Amino acid sequence: MAGILALPVLAIGGLIALIVFYVLFQADHDGYAGQNVPCADVLHFGGAELPESAENIGPCTEQGFQELRYVARFRMPRAEVTDWLVSTYDAVSQQGPCGSLEADLCLTEEHPDGHPDAGAGTVTVQVKYKDSETARVSFLASTE
User: Fold this and answer.
1) Hey, is 70 helix, strand or coil?
2) Which of 2, 37, 80, 141 could in theory staple to 120 by disulfide, Cβ–Cβ 3.0 to 4.6 A?
3) Strand 134-142 relative to strand 105-110: parallel, antiparallel, unpaired?
Protein backbone atom coordinates (compact mmCIF):
# COMPACT_ATOMS: atom_id res chain seq x y z
CA MET A 1 0.00 0.00 0.00
CA ALA A 2 2.82 2.42 0.86
CA GLY A 3 4.44 1.71 -2.53
CA ILE A 4 1.27 2.64 -4.40
CA LEU A 5 0.95 5.90 -2.45
CA ALA A 6 4.61 6.72 -3.10
CA LEU A 7 4.26 6.51 -6.91
CA PRO A 8 2.48 9.88 -7.38
CA VAL A 9 4.97 11.58 -5.04
CA LEU A 10 7.91 10.12 -7.00
CA ALA A 11 6.34 11.11 -10.33
CA ILE A 12 5.77 14.70 -9.20
CA GLY A 13 9.27 14.88 -7.69
CA GLY A 14 10.78 13.55 -10.91
CA LEU A 15 8.87 16.09 -12.97
CA ILE A 16 10.06 18.93 -10.73
CA ALA A 17 13.65 17.66 -10.99
CA LEU A 18 13.41 17.61 -14.80
CA ILE A 19 12.06 21.14 -14.89
CA VAL A 20 14.83 22.42 -12.59
CA PHE A 21 17.49 20.62 -14.67
CA TYR A 22 16.08 22.06 -17.90
CA VAL A 23 16.02 25.61 -16.55
CA LEU A 24 19.57 25.36 -15.20
CA PHE A 25 20.86 23.75 -18.41
CA GLN A 26 19.27 26.45 -20.57
CA ALA A 27 20.62 29.29 -18.43
CA ASP A 28 24.13 27.86 -18.54
CA HIS A 29 24.30 26.72 -22.15
CA ASP A 30 21.78 28.49 -24.29
CA GLY A 31 23.37 31.87 -23.84
CA TYR A 32 20.59 33.85 -22.20
CA ALA A 33 23.03 35.59 -19.91
CA GLY A 34 26.09 35.15 -22.10
CA GLN A 35 29.63 34.89 -20.88
CA ASN A 36 32.61 37.18 -21.19
CA VAL A 37 35.32 36.15 -23.62
CA PRO A 38 38.52 37.85 -24.81
CA CYS A 39 37.70 40.53 -27.38
CA ALA A 40 40.50 39.35 -29.67
CA ASP A 41 38.78 35.94 -29.86
CA VAL A 42 35.51 37.59 -30.90
CA LEU A 43 37.15 39.46 -33.75
CA HIS A 44 39.25 36.45 -34.81
CA PHE A 45 36.07 34.35 -35.02
CA GLY A 46 34.71 37.01 -37.38
CA GLY A 47 37.88 37.06 -39.50
CA ALA A 48 39.15 40.38 -38.15
CA GLU A 49 41.73 42.00 -35.91
CA LEU A 50 40.97 44.78 -33.46
CA PRO A 51 42.35 48.01 -34.95
CA GLU A 52 45.42 49.26 -33.07
CA SER A 53 43.74 52.57 -32.34
CA ALA A 54 40.55 50.95 -31.02
CA GLU A 55 39.39 50.96 -27.41
CA ASN A 56 36.98 48.29 -26.14
CA ILE A 57 33.66 49.42 -24.72
CA GLY A 58 32.66 46.98 -22.01
CA PRO A 59 33.14 43.22 -22.09
CA CYS A 60 32.97 41.09 -25.21
CA THR A 61 30.48 38.24 -24.97
CA GLU A 62 29.63 34.81 -26.29
CA GLN A 63 26.03 33.65 -26.36
CA GLY A 64 24.43 30.44 -27.48
CA PHE A 65 25.09 26.75 -27.37
CA GLN A 66 24.60 25.22 -30.80
CA GLU A 67 24.45 28.46 -32.72
CA LEU A 68 27.06 30.81 -31.34
CA ARG A 69 26.91 34.57 -31.32
CA TYR A 70 29.87 36.76 -30.38
CA VAL A 71 29.59 40.49 -29.70
CA ALA A 72 32.28 43.17 -29.34
CA ARG A 73 31.91 46.91 -29.07
CA PHE A 74 34.73 49.40 -29.43
CA ARG A 75 35.58 53.00 -30.25
CA MET A 76 38.02 53.98 -32.92
CA PRO A 77 38.95 57.09 -34.90
CA ARG A 78 36.21 57.87 -37.41
CA ALA A 79 38.76 58.51 -40.17
CA GLU A 80 40.08 54.93 -39.90
CA VAL A 81 36.77 53.01 -40.12
CA THR A 82 36.58 52.63 -43.90
CA ASP A 83 40.24 51.63 -44.24
CA TRP A 84 39.78 49.00 -41.49
CA LEU A 85 36.69 47.55 -43.17
CA VAL A 86 38.35 47.46 -46.60
CA SER A 87 41.56 45.89 -45.32
CA THR A 88 39.63 43.34 -43.29
CA TYR A 89 36.85 42.34 -45.67
CA ASP A 90 37.65 43.87 -49.11
CA ALA A 91 34.05 44.96 -48.87
CA VAL A 92 33.81 48.58 -49.85
CA SER A 93 30.95 47.81 -52.23
CA GLN A 94 28.94 46.14 -49.45
CA GLN A 95 29.06 49.11 -47.11
CA GLY A 96 25.99 51.20 -47.04
CA PRO A 97 23.25 52.87 -45.09
CA CYS A 98 21.61 50.85 -42.37
CA GLY A 99 17.96 51.28 -43.20
CA SER A 100 15.96 51.32 -39.97
CA LEU A 101 18.99 50.61 -37.77
CA GLU A 102 20.35 53.51 -35.79
CA ALA A 103 23.79 53.41 -37.35
CA ASP A 104 25.58 55.49 -39.95
CA LEU A 105 27.32 52.64 -41.75
CA CYS A 106 26.71 48.90 -41.91
CA LEU A 107 28.47 45.92 -43.41
CA THR A 108 27.44 42.28 -43.57
CA GLU A 109 29.99 39.68 -44.60
CA GLU A 110 29.14 36.03 -45.25
CA HIS A 111 31.76 33.41 -44.29
CA PRO A 112 34.70 35.70 -43.55
CA ASP A 113 38.10 34.07 -43.76
CA GLY A 114 40.52 36.86 -42.88
CA HIS A 115 41.92 35.14 -39.80
CA PRO A 116 42.99 31.50 -39.20
CA ASP A 117 40.52 31.23 -36.29
CA ALA A 118 37.59 32.55 -38.37
CA GLY A 119 34.55 30.35 -37.97
CA ALA A 120 31.65 32.74 -38.34
CA GLY A 121 28.93 32.21 -40.90
CA THR A 122 27.98 35.88 -40.81
CA VAL A 123 29.60 39.06 -39.53
CA THR A 124 27.65 42.27 -39.09
CA VAL A 125 29.45 45.53 -38.39
CA GLN A 126 27.44 48.62 -37.42
CA VAL A 127 29.16 51.97 -37.11
CA LYS A 128 27.69 54.99 -35.35
CA TYR A 129 29.56 58.28 -35.66
CA LYS A 130 29.63 59.86 -32.22
CA ASP A 131 31.28 63.11 -33.33
CA SER A 132 33.68 64.32 -36.02
CA GLU A 133 36.55 62.33 -34.50
CA THR A 134 35.08 59.15 -33.02
CA ALA A 135 33.14 56.13 -34.28
CA ARG A 136 31.49 53.49 -32.14
CA VAL A 137 31.62 50.03 -33.73
CA SER A 138 29.35 47.10 -32.88
CA PHE A 139 30.79 43.83 -34.19
CA LEU A 140 28.61 40.72 -34.27
CA ALA A 141 29.93 37.37 -35.49
CA SER A 142 27.66 34.34 -35.50
CA THR A 143 27.48 30.79 -36.80
CA GLU A 144 24.08 31.49 -38.34
Assistant:
1) strand
2) 141
3) unpaired
